[in-house]
Design goal:
The chain is α/β, with parallel strands linked by helices. The chain has 2 domains: 17-48 and 324-440, Aspartate Aminotransferase, domain 1; 53-322, 3-Layer(aba) Sandwich (Aspartate Aminotransferase, domain 2), CATH 3.40.640.10. Helix content is 38%, strand content 17%. It has helices spanning 38-41, 50-62, 74-84, 100-117, 138-142, 147-150, 177-195, 220-233, 285-293, 307-322, 325-346, 380-390, 419-440, and strands spanning 17-21, 24-27, 32-34, 91-97, 125-130, 162-164, 200-205, 236-241, 264-267, 279-284, 350-356, 359-367, 372-373, 396-398, 407-410. It has a 7-stranded mixed β-sheet with strand order 4-10-9-8-7-5-6, sandwiched between helices. Strands 11, 12, 13, 14 and 15 form a 5-stranded antiparallel β-sheet that branches. The radius of gyration is 22 Å and the shape is globular. The relative contact order is 0.16. Bound molecules: pyridoxal-5'-phosphate. The site of pyridoxal-5'-phosphate (PLP) has 16 residues, from helix 4.
């Protein structure tokens, strides 16, 4: 491997990419990998989609950049319209950014500006959940609940209140699923009251969890109750759909599954689908009017809304419709979940398989009854990914319990995935689980 002037996050190195197409990526030595996690849940429509590439090439021939304070551009206008056509009534104003952290920061800052503009100056606290991941910039870290990524930086930002994420699958009580969902929603109500409702600006949540919880889905009862509680206290609901949005769960927004209308939405990842750095804040029209009437949104990023990125985003949304990829995400999500459940029958150390559509994960434990995690020192979250990588399957993992222990693996192939390809993914997982069991002396 050549020496590098690139400063990676750690000393770990990976092979160099040669090309990518569909759900596959080839390295320079010609090895083919299945992109079983769409990168970091990004390449939702697969790699090298000809329609997207053609749209980008056509845009390159006219203009790659025109600064948004100097020119309007058609791709940005058309993409905003395409988003508004896919979002709930009134949630139709779009502010472009270049990634997920920027989208989340935009939501938080916009919410605060709206509060100031609407006579709610006392409101500034953004309650979020633990564990959660909302991005790596300081504002996004303040609402993130994942110790290894936040702790060192805590002195640099104002810590925001956290309530437990609805990890019902770990609870050993006698409640029904429905009541457990309500129990976790009531924690929001309690926290708003404890903080002083007049100080609380917003509640931010991932409707289907991402990297920090491994595709955590709350019971159905949770979502509507959270919306009611926010309404009761005039608290804004921010849905962080950076990972779950743009169709991955089988609906354009994951919150659509529960017919919950957020006030603000953060979108990125699968929305640019790896073709261009792209993200967006989607905002309620009346809130935008309030902020613009008060003098404008004091926020923005230089590359935002550039015509090349927006032409890619528009083509991505069109491809999702043309190929009916949300329906495929639902159907293939079911096939994948059935495959993971089959693996659970064979490997007692898989504690849980969960998700929605193709935002899917499974978690390894030492005891399925108690859900006690595997010994931390095994670093299963890293080791198992390597076993899969050795077998040319890419998966994405994190520590489940607040980043401290626990091991989950996101299996999130592009939404174009077919049944034979899912079967191949499940078969490689099977082989890797066998190898893992042998290596750590686990029964199966
Ligand atoms: N929010 C969620 C739910 C995410 O999953 C991520 C990234 O993983 C982010 C925000 C941050 O996005 P980015 O890495 O593009 O800044």
């Amino acid at each position: 491997m050549r020496t590098s002037n690139l400063f990676y996050q750690s000393r770990a190195r990976r092979p160099e990419v040669e090309r990518a197409e569909g759900i596959y990526i080839w390295d320079k030595s010609g090895q083919r990998f299945i992109d079983g996690s769409s990168g970091a849940m990004v390449s939702n429509i697969g790699h090298s989609n000809p329609q997207v590439l053609a749209a980008m090439k056509a845009q390159m021939d006219s203009a790659t950049f025109a600064y948004r304070l100097h020119f309007e551009n058609a791709p940005a206008e058309n993409l905003a319209t395409a988003i508004a056509e896919r979002t709930p009534e009134g949630l139709n104003k779009v502010f472009f950014v270049s990634g997920g952290s920027e989208a989340v920061e935009s939501c938080v800052k916009f919410a605060r500006q709206w509060a100031v503009a609407s006579g709610n100056d006392s409101r500034w606290k953004v309650i979020s959940r633990f564990p959660s991941y909302h991005g790596s910039t300081l504002g996004a870290l303040a609402i993130t609940g994942y110790g290894p990524l936040t702790d060192a930086f805590a002195p640099l930002y104002k810590e925001m209140p956290k309530i437990p994420a609805p990890t019902c699958y770990l609870d050993r009580d006698n409640l029904s699923d429905h009541d457990r969902g309500l129990k976790y929603a009531e924690m929001l109500r309690d926290e708003i009251i404890a903080q002083g409702p007049e100080t609380v600006l917003a509640f931010a949540m991932e409707p289907v969890g991402g990297a920090s919880t491994g595709a955590l889905v709350a019971p159905d009862s949770y979502y509507g109750r959270v919306r009611e509680i926010c309404d009761e206290f005039g608290v804004l609901l921010i849905m962080d759909e950076v990972m779950s949005g743009a169709g991955r769960t089988g609906a354009f927004l994951a919150s659509d599954h529960w017919a919950v209308r957020p006030d603000l939405v953060a979108l990125s990842k699968g929305f640019g689908a790896g073709y261009a750095p792209l993200g967006a804040m989607i905002a309620d029209e009346a809130m935008v009017d309030t902020v613009l009437n008060a003098g404008g949104f004091a926020h923005g990023h230089t590359y935002a809304g550039n015509p090349l990125a927006c032409s890619a985003g528009l083509a991505v949304l069109q491809e999702i419709d043309r190929l009916d990829l949300m329906a495929n995400a639902r159907a293939m999500g079911d096939v994948l979940m059935a495959g993971l459940e089959g693996l659970m029958d064979r490997y007692a150390f898989i504690g849980d398989a969960r998700g929605k559509g193709l935002l899917t994960a499974f978690e390894l434990v030492s005891d399925r009854e108690t859900m006690a995690p595997l010994p931390k020192t095994w670093n299963a979250y890293e080791r198992f990914v390597e076993l899969c990588y050795d077998r040319n399957l890419i998966t994405y993992s994190r520590r489940t319990r607040g980043g401290v222990e626990g091991d989950h693996f996101l299996v999130c192939p592009p939404m174009i995935v077919t049944k034979p390809q899912i079967d191949e993914i499940v078969s490689i997982l099977d082989d890797s689980l066998s190898a893992f069991a042998r290596e750590f002396g686990l029964e199966h």
